[in-house]
């Protein structure tokens, strides 16, 4: 089922009711485009997700990036009427504290008038530094929040030169190469030459289209195992 969006301005808040699949590709591009237009009118957005049937890692990355953009613009994106499977995704990826899901549209709208919430995404002290390199901004946003919520200090970039600079300057322990980089032999060799002590982690080609409740936790588990951290 394709993604269908119905928008309703309610005072200074825009409610977007979503039905269908929020997945990498046409759906996330459509959602991003609609949100970009709506946020020119209001920086206060509520996504009502009651009829969303599927969410992949790329779709979750789109939501994460939009939250970051709106908060940077002194707005916010709140979600409500979250189906059980999406709540499970947020729990498994440690993102409940980022999205603060609400039970109803009314509660989400009222939250914009309340005192600012304490951001539970104030992450614990980093036990290691990680650089993430990929061509997708949505994927990078997802990786940043996913790994930060697991206790890592994270640097993300679309550019190879910046990835090398970050990795060298911060003495990062891990460099994660996304699907857009994994087949770039030149980029991988440059990272190996400039940061020989860093461990390279290659995301599979289908990472963005994988089920969000599996791909994210699996990556975190892989990173932990590199350092023998407890699960």
Supply the key terms:
231 residues, alpha/beta, Transcription Regulator spoIIAA, Rossmann fold, 2 domains, 4-stranded mixed sheet, 4-stranded parallel sheet, 9 helices
Summarize the structure.
With 231 residues, the chain is α/β, with parallel strands linked by helices.
Description:
It is a single chain. This protein has 231 residues and is of the alpha/beta class. It has two domains: 4-111, STAS domain (Transcription Regulator spoIIAA); 129-226, Rossmann fold, CATH 3.40.50.2300. Helix content is 42%, strand content 23%. It has nine helices and eight strands. The strands form two sheets. The protein has a four-stranded mixed beta sheet, with helices on both faces. A hairpin with a 2-residue loop joins strand 1 and strand 2. Helix 2 (57-72) crosses helix 9. The N and C termini lie far apart (36 Å). Residues 120-126 have low confidence and may be disordered.
Shape: elongated
The overall average pLDDT, rounded, is 89
Instruction: Name the beta content range.
Output: 15-25%
CATH architecture of the largest domain: 2-Layer Sandwich
Amino- and carboxy-terminal Cα gap: 36 Å
Spell out the blueprint of helices and strands:
Blueprint: E1 4-10, E2 13-22, H1 26-38, E3 44-55, H2 57-72, E4 76-80, H3 84-92, H4 96-99, H5 105-111, E5 129-133, H6 137-148, E6 153-157, H7 160-170, E7 174-177, H8 185-194, E8 199-202, H9 212-226
Parallel strand pairs: 2-3, 3-4, 5-6, 5-7, 7-8
Antiparallel strand pairs: 1-2
